């Protein structure tokens, strides 16, 4: 049975459930940051998915990247599946801009996280839900 890892549960807000993945918004206002989590139990690596789910995950990554690009016009979209802290397979899709505070370095550990205030968080979640379904 699929269960979201406690760290992802604590750091994100549910936006949508797609065919394979749960789409989450990272509670970090510095960067527009979404996460795809395949709703499969005991999956740590992309290679742990069967061939059909691997293909679907790649399509969902491309779909989310296309939506982020169309909505925000970032200079770059970073896509990563690290798993060093959270072993559950999850894929980060982060809009990056040349004027963000750590460009061009990776976002992980560069600055302390800055969560959204409650009102802004709910507004962002609703905006993403409107475009992601």
Automatic annotation (TrEMBL):
Q: Name one GO molecular function term.
A: catalytic activity
PROSITE patterns linked to this entry? HIT_2
| Recorded superkingdom | Bacteria
Q: Which Pfam families match?
A: HIT
- The record places domain HIT at 34-103
For this protein, the parts annotated as crossing the membrane are none
**What protein name is recorded for this chain?**
HIT domain-containing protein
Origin organism is Magnetospirillum molischianum DSM 120
